[in-house]
Amino acid sequence: MKNLITSLRIALLAGAIFSSNASAQSLPSVPETPEAWKQAARNDIEAAFLETKNNHPGMADPQNPGFFARLIQAKERSLEYADAVTDAGGYRAALQIFNTMIHDGHAGVRVTLPPDSPYTQKWPGFHAVWRADKMMVYASELAEVPAGATLHSCDGQAVSAWLQSNVFPFSGHAENPGDWWTHAEKLMRDNGNPFIKLPAKCELELDGKHWLHHLRWTKISAQGKEWERRASDGEQLPVGMTSPKPGWFWIAAQTFSPDESQRAAYRKMYQDIREKRNELLKASAIVIDLRHNRGGSSGWSRDLAKALWGEERVNRRVKAYFAETQVWWRASEGNIAYLENLVGVLRKEAQLPVADTLEKIAAQMRLARQADEPFFKAVAAPVTMSMQEAKQDLASDPPALQRPVYVIVPSRCVSACLDALDVFQLFEGVRFIGAPSGADSTYMEVRTVALPSGLGVTVIPNKVYLNRPRGNGIAYQPQIVFGKLEWSTKNFMHMMEDDIARKPL
């Protein structure tokens, strides 16, 4: 089963766009009365609960015995909110409660309200973000609220308390540091959530000066939406390797879900890295830029690592690192049918190696189900090499990189982006710079099932990693926290240059 396991993170990439009920993708009719919104919320929560109960690997995961109890709590709590739903904002909030309580970033529900639904996002005229340990104004249309100002409190309560009451019950989890970077900006947004009270006046501070500002909530402007897109990760760079200054090599890998042109760019970049290896060995620094990266297929980062450090060197360390890891596929009827359908799609697209892999997995899952087993356990051959042994270079390895390798990590780095960090951190001289990463679960390879209302989907993972070194809900902390307001290439360059000056290799 070795080949099955090594192909898993690549195998279902094509399935990301393949819905389990593709026929249900037409535009839904939006509820027109408060009672209809309430009923839609209740129906969708009940459906999401059943789909998750019947198919989620957590239901039989021996390393997560509390999953079902948490799922029941998620249903009951979100149904309590659903009873008070009267409109689109309440509907969204009730389903978000289900997500936060199930506590699985790869499962739950994803709501997509139609553009013409009766809802208009509002803001107070400025965009605020979390940086390191505080909330700051990123950009503003108001002269009295300048960029760079710190928000200390609102209506007499600390900003952190507002995040605990207004944001984290509906988005992210307060115990994950990266979620503060990702979700704190929602405090200064009115998304029509009827279950929260919006702040009215906030205390701000800049250069030692404190003042009170009364918030005026109005429809968000186009400029506000643009700031929202730019604030978290800065510029979006094309896939490839550049040299912004002599001795520096900047590797832009800001997506692991590449389109056709980006796939070609990745292949060219791998070749460029190999051809310039002698220059990389003498580099001042190598930068792997993961800004904007939200995951996809881990094959792209694995191939990047092989180009940088050498294929066999990477293979040895990865095998030793994951020596105890097992992959179990949840053998539910829904999951099996999904994979069997996906095999047919992949064959029509001439993706035959992936189709062959999935066909074998689906067949083993069906055998497991016939035997009344909850999982097909794709267990690899035992790995006997220790990490210490794996780190010993062989004569066939290319010369080892001994220069600083900085990996820019955004707080939204999840899924295959985290898989990349798993691999990169196995090599000497690697330093993470940026924010705490996201924290995903050990449940992977998702499919979607349309909700009864048509206003979103239930997300169902198909498999679970057991004994993965990075545990369920564990994030990466950067060695260098990037607390500057603007996540620009220029600012990162300056901070990395300062780090090299302080701690040269």
Describe the structure.
Residues 1-24 form the signal peptide. Residues 268-466 form the Tail specific protease domain. InterPro entries: ClpP/crotonase-like_dom_sf, Tail-specific_protease. Pfam families: Peptidase_S41. β5 (150-154) and β6 form a beta hairpin. The relative contact order is 0.16. α3 (34-55) packs antiparallel against α4, α3 (34-55) packs parallel to α5 (88-102) and α13 (333-348) runs antiparallel to α14 (352-370). The protein is built from 17 helices and 19 strands. The strands form four sheets. Strands 3, 4, 5, 6, 7 and 8 form a six-stranded antiparallel sheet that branches. With 505 residues, it is α+β, with helices and mostly antiparallel strands. Among the domains are: 122-219, Roll (Pdz3 Domain), CATH 2.30.42.10; 232-310 and 398-439 and 475-499, 2-enoyl-CoA Hydratase, Chain A, domain 1 (Alpha-Beta Complex).
| Mean pLDDT figure | 92
Cα distance spanning the termini: 41 Å
Structural class: alpha+beta
The CATH architecture name of the domain at 232-310 and 398-439 and 475-499 reads Alpha-Beta Complex
CATH top level assignment of the domain at 232-310 and 398-439 and 475-499: Alpha Beta
Number of helices: 17
Can you tell me the overall shape? Answer: globular
The CATH homologous superfamily of the domain at 232-310 and 398-439 and 475-499 is named: 2-enoyl-CoA Hydratase, Chain A, domain 1
State the helical fraction: 25-40%
Strand content: 15-25%
Largest sheet: 6 strands, antiparallel
Domain Tail specific protease: 268-466
Signal peptide: 1-24
Keywords: Signal
Organism: Undibacterium squillarum
